[in-house]
Design brief:
Layout lengths: L13 E5 L2 H13 L5 E5 L2 H9 L5 E5 L7 H8 L7 E6 L4 H10 L3 E4 L4 H10 L13 E7 L6 H15 L4 E5 L7 H4 L7 H7 L6 H7 L1 E2 L4 E4 L13 H14 L2 E6 L3 H7 L6 E7 L2 H17 L4 E8 L10 H8 L5 E4 L2 H9 L4 H4 L4 H13 L11 H6 L2
Parallel strand pairs: 1-2, 1-3, 3-4, 4-5, 6-10, 6-11, 7-9, 7-10, 11-12, 12-13
Antiparallel strand pairs: 8-9
Length: 397
């Protein structure tokens, strides 16, 4: 797992299972001294930790194995209940390099020998990201998701990225759907259709952060969606300054502003600027997508040269006989895709039909695993091989 940003989520608190009284006192001292380190300290051994993890979605676990004669079998049992995104620190009395390596092989992120001083324990907890005091100002991201052609899957990627950023990464996120007539973002989160984006555009002169927050509909505590569903006979004209003002205000009140834009060079031109931190180009193995991927790449490099450009290739295996190959794609575009996603349309449509993103209904789907990697690269989160789930690390997969 990688560090998550928000310190206000219950998912981000430490769950500590302690039998050693001195270690327990040290943890309580940390909780009192460092208020950004949320913690639940529970008197209990590995058995209690296993029971706790099996029934809760937690991300940060601290276990005391000092009372176990042979903790390895129980830690392996614990691993079976741990999801992909969990950090585990163990405290024990065995001061032995081979024992530490065994714990690492199982998947323990850090091991500290008792007795331990407050600073050493706090530093270990801080290393995994929960107690970071990094300023939110340095985390704000303005991200564009653009399809190389209509129907390539850009909206699906945008919706699920929004869920990963807001729910998995715990960043305050706004997804803005710029398709006024056929947008699907509101529908994807089971939110009522409205005209809020059009109202924001029509009242841009008096628009401020408070009004924009009211117009954005909450899909969850950390996620809001701004969109519109206009009558087909209602043309919408947006001036570049209007787009700039809406984007600027959204960036002030959110950590992540995610733009889902229709296949439109005009909107891409209006949104691309020095404040754009990343552009995610969604393409596929069709001739027209390849042609327009090249054009969008060149355009992005010209308009926003400092932005990260991430290329995602949607691979529909059901059309394998009709598509060009991935190798041919790379040669024609003169760049290999950063990520390849198998386009599982049946599962994606199934999630849409119940008004929930695939990232929520099937968080371990290969597409969502790839999207988590994309968020890691955008947020510049450093990952290591051992940051697989504790179970996967133990099984070496």
């Amino acid at each position: 797992m990688d560090p998550l940003a928000s310190q206000n989520s219950k998912n981000n608190q430490w769950h500590a299972f302690i039998t050693n009284e001195k270690a327990k006192a040290t943890l309580l001292d940390i909780a009192q001294t460092h208020h950004d380190c949320q913690m639940e300290v529970i008197t209990g051994n590995l058995d209690k930790a296993i029971e706790h993890v099996a029934n809760r979605d937690i991300r940060y676990l601290l276990i005391d194995i000092s009372g176990e004669d042979d903790p390895i079998p129980k830690i392996k049992e614990l691993a079976e209940h741990c999801h992909d995104e969990i950090y585990v620190i163990a405290l024990g009395k065995t001061d032995n390099v081979s024992f530490y390596r065994k714990l690492q092989l199982i998947g323990i992120d850090d091991y500290l020998v008792l007795p331990i001083e407050e600073k050493a324990l706090f530093d270990a907890m801080q290393t995994v990201g929960v107690t970071t005091t990094k300023s939110k100002a340095h985390q704000r991201q303005n991200i564009i998701v653009a399809g190389a052609r209509s129907g390539v899957g850009a909206s699906t990627i945008a919706v699920n990225l929004a869920h990963v950023f807001s729910e998995n990464r715990q960043y305050k996120t706004c997804l803005i759907d710029w398709d006024y007539h056929f947008g699907s973002a509101l529908l994807s989160f089971d939110l009522a259709s409205n005209m809020d984006l059009v109202e924001a555009i029509g009242n841009v002169d008096r628009l401020d952060t408070s009004l924009l927050e009211n117009l954005s509909k909450n899909a969850s505590e950390n996620l809001s969606v701004l969109g519109a569903l206009c009558p087909l006979d209602m043309p919408i004209t947006v001036q570049p300054n209007d787009v700039m003002k809406i984007t600027t205000l959204l960036n002030e009140i959110n950590d992540i502003t995610l733009h889902d834009i229709p296949h439109s060079s005009e909107l891409l031109y209006q949104l691309l600027n020095d404040d754009t931190t990343a552009v995610i180009i969604i393409s596929d193995l069709s001739i027209n997508a390849i042609r327009d991927t090249q054009r969008i790449l060149e355009f992005c490099k010209k308009q926003a040269p400092h932005s990260d450009i991430i290329m995602v290739l949607m691979n529909d295996k059901s059309l394998s006989g009709e598509q060009i190959t991935i190798k041919q794609f790379g040669l024609k575009v003169e760049r290999n895709p950063d990520h390849i996603i198998e386009n599982d349309k049946n599962i994606i449509v199934g999630a849409l039909n119940i008004g929930e993103p695939l990232a929520k209904t099937d968080p371990n789907h290969p597409m969502i695993v790839t999207l988590r990697k994309i968020t890691q690269s955008i947020l510049k989160i450093k990952t290591q091989e051992k940051k697989k789930s504790i179970l996967k690390r133990w099984l070496h997969i």
